[in-house]
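FORM 7B: Structural annotation worksheet

SECTION A. Query
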Amino acid sequence: MLISLPGCVQTAGQIFEPGLVDRLVLGQTTTEVAFDLMGPPQSRRTVTKNGTTFTMATYIYGEAKAPIMGGDYFMDLLVIEFFEDTLHGYIQLALDNQAGQPLNIEGTKTLERDVSTKQDVLNLLGRPNGKALSPSNLDIFEDAYGDEIWVWLSSREEGTTVEVQKIVVGFKYDGRVDSVSSSVNVTEY
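SECTION B. Predicted structure
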């Protein structure tokens, strides 16, 4: 006999493969190719910022196991930004109730403007949560300047405290570091 208990597993959204975002290339991938790869987005809208019009596509999938009993949960979120039918930026987040890995904020002090390369940054920080060409409609990229901007995010929850770490690195057209910023925000709830 199979017994089903309400609230044991709840899902929302459409499953998508988060790793496919690595196949998207800023300034090259078209809207059609991105949607063929990722599937249809859950939402698609047009926004204008400072006179520039962007198309935004959002993918969300979440799952909670025994949420009534304090079980595990996760959510994958991907927002893709297009300008003139070409990939302009994206931000991808995997959220869960497990402790996030702290970012190497101290290590960013070794990055040198006009010297450090994209590969140096990848070696130090790993895969970014998002990338965008400048300017972007995605506000998360506003803490740095450059022709291309990458962002890393990590959050940790402990008791009633949430700590969010953020690193933003801007690159020049030649792929060398133009700017680096980092922040740590702690919120009590």
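SECTION C. Observations
The chain has two domains: 1-97, 99-189. Residues 1-97 form a domain with the Beta-lactamase Inhibitory Protein; Chain:B, domain 1 fold (CATH 3.30.1450).

SECTION D. Sign-off
Analyst initials: ____
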